[in-house]
Every structure is written in structure tokens, then in C-alpha cells.
Design a protein that fits this description.
230 residues, mainly alpha, Arc Repressor Mutant, subunit A, Tetracycline Repressor, domain 2, 2 domains, two-stranded antiparallel sheet, 10 helices, 2 strands, 70% helix, 3% strand
Amino acid sequence: MNSRPDFARRREALYERIREAAIAEFAEHGLRGTTTQAIADRAGLTKTKLHYYISGKEELYQDVIDQIIGIWADLFDGIAVSRDPETVLRAYIVRKVRFSLEHPNKVKLFTNEVMRDAGMLQDHWLRSRADVRRSASLIESWVAEGVVRPVDPFLLLFHIWAMTEYYAVMAKQIRFFLDLGESDTVKAEHVASEIADMVLNGLLVADADDRPAPRLNESGVRVMRGKTSR
């Protein structure tokens, strides 16, 4: 007789198979173009059995979106306890590149949703904006301390996202130009190192003599991005 833990593990494994099949379909066809029959076929299930696990494709789509947003928030928050910009940014870029190369369909799905008007993301925007502002505040603190050059923290994050997610969204183009065969892989460490070196070489202040003097207003208060800080 099968134990309940074994049943639960099998159920979870099957649901994960359904989710991966759905991610592939959503990445290729979007929510509107994907059918539950296509998800069932890709997962190797009958449509009837699929609906035993999900009520509809919208529920599955939202589940996937929730998962992706949670993962991306953790990619930065998991390392931001360090205040050393080189450690934080290099580790963040490595994680972003690895995620793009290992889970390209998740990146494509998210990108396609944004391009289609982000209707399914509205419930997440406020939380995501808060996460981004927290990351930007850390970068601003580095500028204030003089350990990085003055930079718009939001644009820095956008540029990192663009460079790292490119390896998922434009994977076919990359493989063509690099003349990669079916069995060849793009090396995450090499890509991450190139991106991190480019970002950090333009961002880090070499030594104390190179640190820019803080901008002060008439009252002697430090000025940063239109704000003041004491």
C-alpha cells in the first residue's frame, strides 16, 4: 500500500511536469494562443486528467508568473546583505545569467507578457516596484559613500536586466552567430564574467583619490538624484 508521502511526491512531480509543459507553450504562444489540450499533449496527459490538477490555463499562467517574480526578487535579495558593490553586483549578474540560460522559457514568457500589455502583472507591479526601489537605494548608498561613480541606480538595474535576459530572449540569434551546434552550450561563467567586468570597470572607483566629491547644496547638504541627504 502506498504511503501518503509517496502519493504527495508523485502528485507534486506530475504538477511540476504540467507546469513545465505550460511554460513551454506559454513562452511560444502566449496565454491566448495556448490551449489546455496543447499543455496536456506536451505533458503526456489526457485533457481530462490535466483538469484534475488545474481548473484552467489562466490559473496555471498566474501560478507561473508568481513563481518567476518570486525567483527574480530572491536573486538580488539573497546576496544584498553584503554592502560591497563588487560582490553584490557580480553575484547578481551570475545568478541572472544562469537563470536566463537554464530557464529561457520563463524569461520569454515574462517578456512576452510585458510586451502584450502586462495585464496579468498588474497585481505584482507595486510589490515589484518596492523591490526595485530597495535595490536602487542600496546602489545610491554606494554612490553616497564614494565607492562607485555617480549613476542612475534604476538605469543600472535596467541595463543589467537587458544584458542578462538577452541570452534567453535572443537565444537562437546567439547560437547562430556563435556557430553553436545542438549539443553546444553557452558557458554561463564566461558570459557573466564579461558582463560583470564591463559593468564594474565603468562603475567602481579605483581608489580614494578618484572618488568624486559629493555634491552639496547651499546649506551644505548632500544632493543625490534630485533629493537631499544629510
